[in-house]
Queue: 2 jobs
Job 1
Amino acid sequence: MCKVIAIANQKGGVGKTTTAVNLGIGLARKGKKVLLIDADPQGSMTVSLGYDHPDELEVTLSTVMLKILNDGNDCEISVEEGILHHAEGVDLMPANLELSALEVYLVNAIARESILKLYVNAVRAKYDYIIIDCMPSLGMMTINALTAADSVLIPVQTAYLPVNGLQQLISTINKVKRQLNRKLKIEGIVMTMVDFRTVYARDIFEKIHLTYSDSVGTFETYIPISVKAAETSAEGKSIFEHCGSGKVAIAYGELTKELLEHEGE
Ligand SMILES: Nc1ncnc2c1ncn2[C@@H]1O[C@H](COP(=O)(O)OP(=O)(O)OP(=O)(O)O)[C@@H](O)[C@H]1O
C-alpha cells in the first residue's frame, strides 16, 4: 500500500527539499518505488534532481492539476504524464513558476483543497511512497498537500527557536485533519542542519525534544550541518551519490530506516 508523506514547514530554507530528495532516494535504495512531487513553484526539488531549467518543461504539476480543475472527476490522468525518471531510481513530478499562477486560480475553484489529492489518487497504485515537497507557506498548495497526504514530516532547523511557527503549522495540520483529511498524522519533527558546536543549537535541540517528543513526535535521527550537503543541491544527485560516506548521507540513511520502522518494517 502506498504511503503519502508531505514535507512541510512554512519557514523557508529549513531543509524541506533536501530532506524530501534524500529520504525519497533513501527509500528507493531500500527497494521502494518512490514518486517525488515538487509542490513548490520555486522548483527547487526539480532543480536539485538535475533538471536545471524547470520553466522549459512541457508538463509539470501545474499542468496536471489544471487538467483536473477543468475536467473534475471525469479527468483522465495517465500515470506516466509528465513523470521524469531520475537515475537514482525515483520518479519526479516536477514544478515550475506556473504553479504560482495555478495557486491563485485554485482560490476560486470548487473542491479547491482536494485537487492534488485527485492527482495522487490517480497515481498512487504504482508507488510504495509518494513524497511531496511543500512550498514555504501555509497557502492553498500546502493545504492541498496536507489534504492529499497520509502524514506530515516537519523539518526544523535548529538555528532559531521556531516555537510560534511550529504552533501555527501544527494548528493548520489539526484543522486540515478535522475538516478535510481525518486520517492525516504527524510523522514527526526532524531536526536539520544541526551544529552542536554552538551552545545555542544544543539548547534549541533539547527544547524541541522536551516540548514536542511526547505530543507531536520527534525523530531520533537528526541531520548534521555539512558543506557537502549544501553542495548537493547544485549537483543533481542525492547526498548518497555525492558523498556516501559523509555524516549527512549516514544521517539520511538512518532517517530512512527510522521511517520504515514507523511502518513496522
Ligand atoms: N544538512 C545540511 N547542511 C548544510 N546545508 C544544508 C543542509 N541541508 C540543506 N542545506 C542547504 O540549506 C539550504 C536550504 O535547504 P532546502 O532547500 O532543503 O530548504 P527548504 O526548506 O526546502 O527551502 P525552501 O523553503 O526555500 O523551499 C540549501 O542551500 C541546502 O543546500
Job 2
Amino acid sequence: MAAALTPTPDATTPQTQLPQVTELRNPGMPLDLNWVLGAQANTSAIERRAGTIGARRSVKKAHQAAWLLRAVTCMDLTTLSGDDTDRRVARLCAKARQPVAPALLDALGMDPITTGAVCVYHEMIPAAVAALEGTNIPVAAVSTGFPAGLSPFELRLREIEMSVAAGATEIDIVISRRHVLSGNWQALYDEMSAMREACGDAHVKAILATGELGSLRNVARASLVCMMAGADFIKTSTGKESVNATLPVSLVMIRAIRDYYDHTGIRVGYKPAGGISKAKDAVTYLALIKEELGDRWLRPDLFRFGASSLLNDIERQLEHYVTGNYSAGYRHATS
Ligand SMILES: O=C[C@H](O)COP(=O)(O)O
C-alpha cells in the first residue's frame, strides 16, 4: 500500500479538494485593435517549446498521484453525445460526486474529492442539476448552437438564457469561426460581449475551435478578443473538430492569458478540451500551466480539462500506484 501523499516543493500538493478562491470576474475592456493586430505567433518556436514539455518532465509515484488527483478536481466531466439520456447523465454525475474510489483515496491518505464540473448539452441540464443536488459541483452547458455555432444569433443568445434559467452556472459558448477567418475582430468582440451579457452571473467559457481557425496567429488574436469582450475562460475546442486540444495551441492561448493578465491584472481561465484521454497527457498539461502561468492557475476556478474519458485512465493509474496492478478500463467506465 502506498504511503499518504506528502507535500513537496517540486510537485503540486493537492491533498484535498482545494478551498474555493473567489477570483475577480473578467469585466472585459474596449476592443484594442492595435494590441490584437500586434499579436504574432512564431510557429516553429512554439512547436519547439511545446515539444520540450512532455519530454523533459517525468513525474513519478506520489508526485504523479498528486498531479492526477489535481487533474480530477480540475475536470469538466463531459458527455456530449446525440444519444445522451437522463440515466447516462445521472451516472456521470454519480461519478463526478465520487470520481475516485474511496478505497484508493484512503490508501493515498486523501479526503474525498469531486470533479470541477459536469458538462452537458442544454437538454440534459435538468437531469444533471437533479443528480448533483446537495453538492457544490457546477453544471456547465454547451449552448449557442454547439458545436458549429451557426444557428441564428438571437436563438444562440436565447439558448444561453434558457440554459442559465435551467440551472447551468457555467456556459460554454462557441464563437463564429468565420469572424476570425475574415479578420472581423469587431464582429467577434460584439458577439462575445452579447453572449457574456446573456450569461448574467453564469461564468462563460469561450470555445475558439482552434482546429478551424487557420493559424496560430489567429488563435492568439481570437484569444485576446474574447478576453477583451469578457470571457471568464478561453477553451480550445468542442471535441468535435478534426483537430482538438494540442500543446502548441495551448501554449499560444496561455501566453495570451498571461499577456492579458500583465496588461489588466485580470486572471482568465484556460480549458483545453477534446481528445485528452490519457493520464500522462493530463500531467503534461498541468506542467505547462505551472511553468507558463504559475501555481495560481492550477485551481478549478482558473483551469479545467474538458474530457469525457480521461477520468477512466486516471483512475487506472491511481489504482496501479496503490495496488501495483492495472485493472481493465471497463471497470472505470463513466457512462
Ligand atoms: O468539452 C469537452 C469535449 O467535448 C470532450 O472531448 P472528448 O470527448 O474528446 O474528451
